[in-house]
């Protein structure tokens, strides 16, 4: 039986309640509902299910017992008992169970608690909590905590957290943070390895937590050859802003000094304006010389409306080890004046300082775009202004200015009743090209362009043929002229069950020359290519090759094999054969085999004819325990390293590592 919406809602507009239950009582004077048996109470996006329930509509307080299920804004929690305020949306659940999801986690994070308190959509505190990404009721890996603070779609913060494997507690840390929105967090275990530069090393990272807006990680590292390093990475949030600060120092054993490395990454929202800044500062000292400082900084300002967008991006680099400092700022504004007309203003400022002086340049560009019925036009003007007014070595560089350039494009149209479509582009421009060097100079000249493209495809002899041909004529005010024309013809056909073939011919050539460097075009091209493919449900075979008529030589023949007989096995092979010398150049192979539910084998490598050797890129053996915890040993041939890794299968990017190389 149920209570219609109006039976309760008419007495309180603030809490429109619907109720279903085997039996219920409603005290209209006290405005209290008492319900028993398969109770379902709904208020807006809040639903409470229980065996028994009492709701005080005057205060908004709900108490429920027996098979309790609370659903708030899509988040669900099961419990034995509940108290919940419908007005504040804050409640307390006892012996609670819930799951949280994240794009960074395969599956879900399962939580259990003696007591869960808060607003499920915003913030939850769990006392005497239990969390795992493994299947219950007996997960192979899990963590317990005196307290867990859950910030949905953001992070889970644990206080006094213990890690358990197969029922045995490995260790306890004061804080641990699981990020639900980015690959960031502390490590339960250190990263141990060996490298040519570092020698043996041990890297550790531990979480700390002040409050929701201030938390971070403490890093402590040991390098056999470099020394001892330590640092702190602090994450923060303020009104409209958030960011991180990293301060890291290394007592460098090789230089006898201290290396200091600082990062600042900040995002600030000021109304419709977004500001991003990044600063990377290094201070490297040595016992034998003067310290070296490096500074790299960026500033990014942007704002956007329905009709426009504006941004300013700047970079700065300075180093005491180099006499050159650089500053670059780029400003852009895009404006729509309607569905047919738009404009862009772009300013590029460059400043280069060296012992000879400071070179300052501004490169402005203005673009107008028009979109009409069947036609589009673009007008671009860009130039260079030397702001410092003096000549420096930085001025000796290639520069192209358009003063201006107009292009008009006619939209593709069908040629009569044929399957062919044509498109035309006409251009008119005045260019100024500055070329550095003793043979360089300034060329100021105009160009008129006209280009026509014809393309299409049709069925032919059981297959399909496609073509694209073009011709472009350019005239220059220097008296030069050039014609550039060419195209491609393709034919594809299936010649049997699972067998497809394809052939193509590409050609292009030029007559005449352009006086501009930027306008040069590759000369004559004449290539024929072919491809044959055989495919079934689990097998793909493909071979491709080409012939160059200009050189009279064949290109490498490339063969590929992909074999997928079942979901747990994939084999890939590829090879290249040089028919001109009759030699196999290279063979690559990849194998991914799920031997069983617990074991997985992976291999990728190559044979190279130049070195006459086999190179193993990756060789890995993985053991999975209870579909939850995985361990692998991996050999990386290119770096000559062996790594032992362990991770939760739900968080494959968060791996503990021990390496030797």
Automatic annotation (TrEMBL):
Domain of life: Bacteria
GO cellular component: cell outer membrane; transporter complex
InterPro entries xrefs: LptD
Name the record gives this protein: LPS-assembly protein LptD
Organism, scientific name: Candidatus Segetimicrobium genomatis
